[in-house]
Amino acid sequence: MTMVVEAVNLKKVYMLGKVPVEALRGVNLKVEEGEFLSVLGPSGSGKSTLLNLIGALDKPTDGKVFVDGVDVSTLNENELASLRRKIGFVFQFFNLIPRFTALENVELPMAIAGVGKEERRKRAAELLETVGLADRMNHKPTELSGGEQQRVAIARALTNNPRFLLMDEPTGNIDSKNAYEIIQLVKRLNREKGVTIIMVTHDQRLASEANRTVHMLDGLIVKEAMNKA
Known about the structure:
Blueprint: E1 3-16, E2 19-32, E3 36-40, H1 47-54, E4 62-67, E5 70-71, H2 77-84, E6 87-90, H3 102-112, H4 117-130, H5 146-157, E7 164-168, H6 176-193, E8 196-201, H7 204-207, E9 212-217, E10 220-226
Parallel strand pairs: 3-8, 3-9, 6-7, 7-8
Antiparallel strand pairs: 1-2, 1-4, 4-5, 9-10
């Protein structure tokens, strides 16, 4: 299998005033192409910090992150921007633009990337159909439920054919019924489309839906388990 992401002895220290806080204390992690990995842990365990480092949104204090075998620390700002376009980000808060329709929200990354209007509109419509929103694409975020808004966010994250999706508490801002539906959608994308997914969550039940779970505590991976199919 192709290794998509590798973290090697990752450490991250933040300064709280004059007090150093160790968010990560030496994390090693490998993620293969086509995996659905969940990163489980309580608040403050370092899981979101790990996600930010993998996504090149932050830099480690020590250690390295490799994406497709490339050491992220060797990249300049332009190369980092190109790398981030290979990653789909889905956050707890949907970050949709209120005045845009679902279709326009999904089109936006492609517009920024310079994709022509006709092509990006066609792809955005196809992605919204993939996530079950073919009949809601002309609705604005205020006209959509929380679960529907998160589906739009997932469609948007897929626009540039990312190498993998990073999902930070993707069900944290929706009710349990919609959370279940979102996770089933994520599983289907992984199974049918081969999308590699790394999902951070504090919910044991959601984590168990992934193929593999790593458990984090106090900035370290303390356990790893394969989940039942």
